[in-house]
Structure formats: structure tokens, C-alpha cells
Amino acid sequence: MYSLLRPLIFRLEPEQAHHTTLAMLKLAARFGLTAPVPPRSRPTELMGLQLSNPVGLAAGLDKNGEYIDALAALGFGFIEIGTVTPRPQDGNPQPRLFRLPEQQAIINRMGFNNHGIDAAIRNIEKSAYRGILGINIGKNAVTPIENAADDYLICLEKVYAHADYITVNISSPNTKNLRALQGGDELTALLTALKDKQAQLAASHGRYVPLAVKIAPDLDETQIANIAHVVQNVEMDGIIATNTTIDKTALGNHPLAQEQGGLSGLPVREKSNLVLRRLAEILGSTVPIIGVGGIVCGEDAAEKLRLGATAVQLYSGLIYRGPELVRECMDSCR
């Protein structure tokens, strides 16, 4: 059905199409027109969590947790919402989302637009979903980078009781200076503060919620190694590789190649896989990796598992392939 609807959806502006498609999915689920897809892939353990299958939804599609139940019907083994910030923010000016159909790619400079952490929690509390839920947290744009830890700590404390795992997003290219947090000293300080707070929250809640960090694909060998060592040293529970890329050379002379923002979809696959492969070489089995970036068919997902990922996440590929991509990836990841 999605293949029939896609030409109509693609006539809409990308951001309008995004909201319209999710609203349609939510409406269909409400009236029982979507049935849960039975898992056709192997159960997987990730960060101590039991997944029905290793194919998850990446953060960014459902920023505020408004569509959790409808998205769950697509068969994901886990769902990640966000990025959420302590206070609501509009994000960057529109237009800020661009489709490149021939390249199966998307450019976005959304800028953590969301309704704030409290609104997300209210949506989670209304959801009937009982699968594995990740919550992706970030900092507000107006928060100085030197105070970024304050925002992450606020979010961590607020979402802790509602998440199965929490992702620290320090790799979006659309919040000024955010990627500076991937540097050695800055990364160590931030993750150490979050791990200390995690220990306190685990004691007070009587429940341990794993903590993962999401990194960029635009890293050289030294940076990847440094991040891997920090992640090991502070005992992070997982790492997500990767976010979008700012490198648009793969687009050649495409008229959208000059647009600011992160590039996702097929053109980021090789960059993401290079980071994934190197992380797996360094980390071995000590820290599980979630592979993200450029999955547009089942074989792309299977390749990330072969490279060392424990699980994978989809986003941009869904825009072009629809729900069938989830089932195809589940079959390929058996």
C-alpha cells in the first residue's frame, strides 16, 4: 500500500509529508487497520535488554513520542523516540528538510525541534506499548556548550523511570557546537557525570536503565579510537553508530548538495560502516554497538550485523521503502 501512496505523499513538502504520514498511520492503528507484524527474526539481547528482533526505529521520526503505538505495529524490535530537550524549542527555520529520491537520501537541519521533555513523558504515559523503548536526549540550543551537561542531566533524571534505555545525542550537526562534546576531555566529563547520575537513579528507582551514546560518521581513525576508549573507560552500556554526515561530496553537483544540515540515507552507508567496523575492532564484545545509517534494504542491515553491530536502526530508508523495509530487514537478520 505504501508504494501506491508514496507518489501522493511525495507531492507534499517533506515536513508536511512527515506529519501527514504519521497521522495517517496513527489513525489506521486506532481503527484497527494495522495489525502487529509477527517477528520473523531472531530474539536479540542488547545492553541487557531482550529484543524480539534486532531491527529498531532510530530517533528523529517520532520526536515527541506521539506515535509510539502506531509505529510498534510495524514490527520493530525496539523503538527510540526523541531527540527531546529540557525545554520546548522550535528548531531551525523552515525549510529544513529535503528529499533526494534518486539518491535515496534526506538532508535535514531540524535542530532538535520538540515539545520538551515533559510533553514527551505525557505521551509515553498514554502509550499502550510495552516493548523496548529508548529515549534520545539532547541540549537546548540556547544552553551554552559549557553548560551542556546540565541539560543532559535534567533529561536523564526526568526520563529515567519511563525508558528501557537512554541515548545521549552529541552528534547532531544541527545544534551549534554540539559535536565538540565528542572530544576526549569534553566527552569524558559529560559521560562520567551521566554515569554517576545513572548510578544514583538506579539505586533510588531499584532499576538499572542502560545508557548509550550516539556518535557522528565524520570521524577519523584517531577520533574513533579515542571515543571507543572513553566509552570503555566510563563503562557506557552501548554506542550508536552513526548520526547524519555533513560530508555531501557523494551528492556531486546535485542542486541540494549546498544545503546546510545532516545527510542521511544511502550516501551515508559506507561512512557509517567504516565507523562501525573500526569500533567493533577496538571494542570487541565489551560494548554493544547499534548500527545506523544507509539501510535501504535487508542486506544493508545484515551487513551491519556482520561488521559487529548487535542491532540496527532504520529511519531514512523507511521514507523510501515504507513498512516493507522493516520486514525485509527482519528476514535478513535471522
From TrEMBL:
Cofactors: FMN
Record GO biological process: 'de novo' pyrimidine nucleobase biosynthetic process; 'de novo' UMP biosynthetic process
InterPro entries to which the protein is assigned, alphabetical: Aldolase_TIM, DHO_dehydrogenase, Dihydroorotate_DH_1_2, Dihydroorotate_DH_2, Dihydroorotate_DH_cat, Dihydroorotate_DH_CS
List of catalytic residues: S172 (nucleophile)
Keywords, alphabetical: Cell membrane, Flavoprotein, FMN, Membrane, Oxidoreductase, Pyrimidine biosynthesis
UniProt binding sites for FMN: A59, G60, L61, D62, K63, T83, N136, N169, K214, T242, G265, G294, Y315, S316
Subcellular location: Cell membrane
Any Gene Ontology CC annotation: plasma membrane
Primary localisation category: membrane
Membrane topology of this protein: Peripheral membrane protein
An example Gene Ontology molecular-function term: dihydroorotate dehydrogenase (quinone) activity
Catalytic reaction list: (S)-dihydroorotate + a quinone = orotate + a quinol
Catalytic activity, EC: 1.3.5.2
Domain Dihydroorotate dehydrogenase catalytic intervals: 44-329
Annotated positions binding substrate: K63, N108, R109, M110, G111, F112, N169, N174, N243, T244
Family: Belongs to the dihydroorotate dehydrogenase family. Type 2 subfamily.
Family annotation (PANTHER family): DIHYDROOROTATE DEHYDROGENASE (QUINONE), MITOCHONDRIAL, DIHYDROOROTATE DEHYDROGENASE (QUINONE), MITOCHONDRIAL-RELATED
Subunit text: Monomer.
Protein name: Dihydroorotate dehydrogenase (quinone)
Species whose genome carries this gene: Neisseria elongata subsp. glycolytica ATCC 29315
Taxonomic lineage: Bacteria, Pseudomonadati, Pseudomonadota, Betaproteobacteria, Neisseriales
Gene that encodes it: pyrD
